[in-house]
Amino acid sequence: MKSKRYPLHFRIIFRKNHLWISQLIGFIIVISIVVSLTVQGIRIFLLYIHIVENKKVAATIQPEKLLLIHTLGELKEKVKISDIIEKFTRGRLTDETRASLVEIVYTNSKTFGYDPLLIFAVINVESYFDPNAKGQYRSGKFSGAYGLMQLKVATAKEIADFLEIPFNGMEDLLKPEINIPLGIAYLTQMVSWFKSLKLGILAYNQGPGTIRKNLREKNELSIVYYTKVLKNYYALKKIED
Question: Nearest 5°: CA angle at 103, between 101 and 107?
Fold first, then answer.
């Protein structure tokens, strides 16, 4: 008896075994799915690597960008303060002197947490922006204070020793780059001791011993100096506005 034979287009021969069309289609589908998943996996992996690399680049760029923004912000502030001081002093300072003072005052004010204009107000009251100023009492007698922020040698040395910075006496107090940082540090010490900006400013001018004595004896404090500083500060702020 002859075996039943199917037409050629209904069968396919693979290694002498019959593989039906339905099975072949299923096999092809499975292979296609595997290939597709493999391709997708590779794409996802490459995308992941790309993201990681971008994050590394961003991590490098971001601090530089933030630093640039911060630097530009400081530069704008300094230019603004310089313009204010120019108007306030009515051109008494050269461009070079004004730029130098703004840099010194700005840097040290920010270090100790002050508005730079407040320090400029103190400087104007103390020395009228004269780096070679020598203080006098109302009697006309020399007070022993020198420079822009009118510091005495003993006080300046004490602050310099505390900050562990070199100090060579009176000559250094005539240098703005030394006088101003020491003056701001001393003001900060007074504010810290009395826990009050007002009392700190008064102690800066009158001495901490005088303020303590008046507070202890409940004497009325003289606020003339404090009023002068505030008046100058508000005048500077008005120019800023």
Answer: 120
Q: What is the pLDDT of residues 15-73, one digit of tens each?
A: 444 545 666 666 677 677 767 767 776 777 776 676 666 666 556 655 665 555 557 77
Structure tokens at 78: 């300094």
* Cα–Cα distance, 70 to 223 (Å, whole number): 38
pTM of the model: 0.72
How many CB atoms lie under 10 A from the CB of residue 225? 16
Beta-bridged to residue 145, according to DSSP, are 152
Q: Residue 103 and residue 98: Cα distance in Å, rounded?
A: 9
Which of 136, 148, 133 shows the shortest CA–CA distance to 85?
148
Q: What are the angstrom distances between the C-alpha of 225 and each of 60, 62, 133, 211, 228?
A: 50, 47, 18, 13, 5
Q: Which residues contact 46 (CB under 8 A, 6 or more apart)?
A: none
| Other Cβ atoms closer than 10 A to 175 | 13
pLDDT-based confidence at 195, cuts 50/70/90?
very high
Could you give the percent of the chain with pLDDT greater than 90? 63
